[in-house]
Design a protein that fits this description.
Layout: H1 6-21, H2 35-38, E1 48-58, E2 63-69, E3 74-80, H3 81-84, H4 86-95, E4 101-110, E5 116-127, H5 143-148, H6 150-156, H7 158-180, E6 184-185, E7 191-192, E8 204-207, E9 212-216, H8 221-230, E10 234-242, E11 254-263, H9 267-285, E12 290-293, E13 296-299, E14 306-309, H10 310-318, H11 328-337, H12 343-346, H13 352-363, E15 372-378, E16 394-402, E17 405-412, H14 417-432, H15 443-451, E18 456-462, H16 463-470, H17 488-496
Parallel strand pairs: 3-5, 6-10, 14-15
Antiparallel strand pairs: 1-2, 1-4, 2-3, 4-5, 7-9, 8-9, 10-11, 11-18, 12-13, 15-16, 16-17, 17-18
Helix pairs in contact: 6-7, 7-9, 8-15
């Protein structure tokens, strides 16, 4: 057990003293208003009951002030000895610390400095904090500690409160917007028996009761399409997904993805719908369709966003028709001969699709700044997308990219079961070449396809990455409440070695 600090010892002693007077952890407190509501009340409003955590206190002779806070707002409290009485006032001055919870009843007024305040007529102690808040009032400055102790970060950091309140509002908006447009929400399995729905490395686990190996969901796609086959007209899910890959400022192994699917749409219908969705979302959260992100002003309000033809742009960069190349070695040789990359830089990429995707990300995506629709993708990249009627090597796909970041991916869905089986078989060939991000041949999904599906278009986007952009955060961990971290003792051991 860790050694307690002097402040922690003092607070524990105060807890003992408080216990002699009242229950330091009562079961409830009846409020008349939240702090956000109370700040809007008119002066003179009486019998107002509010509660929150004390984040600041200025204790003086016969008059003291404190500030209490919850996630959405804060409010100043005024404590006077002539209103509270000597005993109660002394209790406040001696036993109550920052970090403690109190409930207060009194009258609303505005100070000479213009601050809305509650003149306290009575108060109730609601909870002792045994650890002090950070000394610096603006919050945690240790980034790792901020992620480990998000509760302290939210107590002390206004920017973090803004981000996570925004995240809750984003969820509410998604549900309302999609519901208003005829989409029904469903839940699909997280434990699955086939790796399908995206190009990614899965997490594996074992199901003891069934004695089978399972993977954690990398995407909800195939199950949502089965819902369309079952008769759902428009369907969506806010889905926790898991991909056992590298970590950086834009990727975590556990993340939240939204996917929606609409019967009888093609990808152009989805482009229009997504643009309307994003514009409405930004107006709801920011009140503007212009986003300031890492020093760049992004305009999502244009009627027509920029467009880039993926295949044509790649042909310009490569200087040859990459769709004609079938072997990974041949493709690498051509790329190296053009002096675009070295063999060492391409070494980790085993299949043609992996190599092409790497070149795209480095030579095209990184240079895209303003919201741009990337479209006309090579079929090798996405086995679940519909082949173009004019060229089967091309798929009807689009992505929205801004500041070098992919914000969504969508396509006209492949609903032809014969073609789908062939694309899954191609995935197995890529796996044999060493590509460990390929999909399995999902026979359960194939059965649903063979039952028959209407034309479909689906779209997916990561909530975490969208949050980064909307709230101008440099790392995905800044928009995830509790990002996974190594155990603290493991980090300490590493430092010692």
């Amino acid at each position: 057990m860790r050694e307690l600090t002097e402040q922690e010892l003092v607070r524990r002693q105060k807890l003992t003293e408080i216990s002699k007077v009242c229950n330091p952890y009562p079961d409830s407190f009846k409020r008349t208003n939240t702090l956000k509501e109370a700040k809007k009340l008119k002066d003179g409003e009486k019998s107002v009951r509010i509660a929150g955590r004390i984040v600041f206190a200025r204790k003086m002779g016969k008059l003291s002030f404190a500030k209490i806070r919850d996630l959405e707002s804060d409010m100043q409290l005024e404590f006077k000895i002539d209103l509270l009485g000597e005993e109660k006032y002394a209790f406040f001055k001696k036993q109550i610390d920052t970090g403690d919870f109190v409930g207060a009843e009194g009258e609303i007024f505005t100070t000479q400095t213009g601050e809305k305040t509650l003149r306290v007529h009575s108060f109730t102690f609601l909870g002792k904090a045994l650890r002090p808040l950070p000394e610096k009032f603006h919050g945690l400055v240790d980034t790792e500690l901020k992620y480990r102790q998000r509760y302290v970060d939210l107590i002390t950091n206004e920017e973090s409160r803004k981000v996570f309140l925004g995240r809750s509002k984003l969820y509410a908006f998604i549900h309302k917007y999609l519901s208003d447009n005829g989409f029904l929400e469903v839940e699909t399995p997280i434990l699955q028996t086939a790796v399908c729905g995206a190009a990614a490395k899965p997490f594996y686990t074992h199901h003891n009761a069934l004695n089978i190996d399972c993977n954690l969901r990398i995407a909800p796609e195939t199950y949502l399409k089965q819902c369309i086959a079952a008769g759902y007209d428009r369907v969506y899910e806010v889905a926790k997904c898991f991909r056992n890959e590298g970590m950086d400022t834009q990727h975590l192994q556990e993340f939240t993805q939204v996917e929606w699917y609409a019967s009888y749409w093609n990808y152009e219908d989805n482009i229009k719908f997504y643009q309307g969705f994003i514009k409405a979302l930004l107006m709801e959260l920011l009140g503007t369709t212009t986003v300031e992100y890492q020093g760049v002003s992004l305009d999502f309000g244009k009627e027509n966003w920029n467009r880039i033809n993926y295949i044509e742009e790649m042909k310009k960069i490569l200087g040859f028709d990459f769709l004609e190349v079938e072997e990974p070695k041949d493709l690498k040789d051509k790329i190296v001969s053009k002096k675009l990359f070295t063999y060492e830089e391409l070494e980790d990429y085993k299949s043609v699709s992996q190599i092409i995707d790497f070149v795209y990300k480095k030579k095209i995506r990184e240079n895209v700044v303003q919201p741009t629709i990337m479209y006309n993708y090579p079929a090798m990249l996405i086995p679940l997308a519909r082949r173009n009627d004019d060229d089967s090597r091309v798929i009807d796909v689009f992505q929205v990219v801004a500041c070098g970041t992919e914000l969504c991916k969508a396509y006209s869905e492949l609903v032809n079961p014969i073609t789908q089986r062939k694309t899954f078989e191609d995935q197995l060939k890529a796996k044999a070449q060493g590509d460990d991000e390929t999909m399995d041949l999902d026979e359960g999904f194939m059965l649903a396809m063979e039952q028959g599906m209407p034309p479909i278009s689906g779209l997916g986007f990561g909530i975490d990455r969208l949050m980064m952009l909307i709230y101008n955060q440099p790392s995905i961990r800044d928009v995830v409440l509790f990002p996974l971290m190594k155990p603290e003792n493991e980090n300490k051991n590493e430092k010692k070695d």
